UniProtKB/TrEMBL annotation:
Tc1-like transposase DDE domain span: 4-80
A Pfam family matched in the record: DDE_3
UniProt name for this protein: 1157_t:CDS:1
Top-level division of the source organism's lineage: Eukaryota
GO molecular function list: nucleic acid binding
Length: 100
């Protein structure tokens, strides 16, 4: 994704604790996610807690999980195949709707 130097980008995050990991990163001498985002001209948008229905990736994961439950892979090779087929089931039209 190419953007101009002044153009802000937005990232949608759920409210899982790791997305706010200030202390753990500070202990490692690393900037927080918020600090790093600000340095890169990125605006972080956090979803309200317990709202997976607002997270577009949850819709995608739901399709793949459904495919998994239907096919019940027993080996790593079968699992990879089921995941690939599940991803292929995601229709372009649906993806656009998930991320509107």
């Amino acid at each position: 994704m190419k953007t101009s130097a002044n153009e802000k980008r937005h990232i949608l995050l759920d409210n899982v604790r790791i997305h706010h990991a200030v202390k753990a990163l500070k202990d490692l001498g690393l900037p927080s996610i918020k600090e790093l985002a600000e340095q890169k001209n990125i605006v972080l948008i956090y979803l309200p807690p317990y709202t997976p229905e607002l997270n577009p990736t949850e819709n995608c994961n739901s399709v793949i999980k459904s495919f998994y439950r239907k096919h019940r892979p027993r080996t790593e090779e079968e699992l990879r195949k089921v995941i690939e087929e599940g991803i292929a089931e995601l229709k372009k039209h649906d993806l656009r709707n998930y991320f509107k």
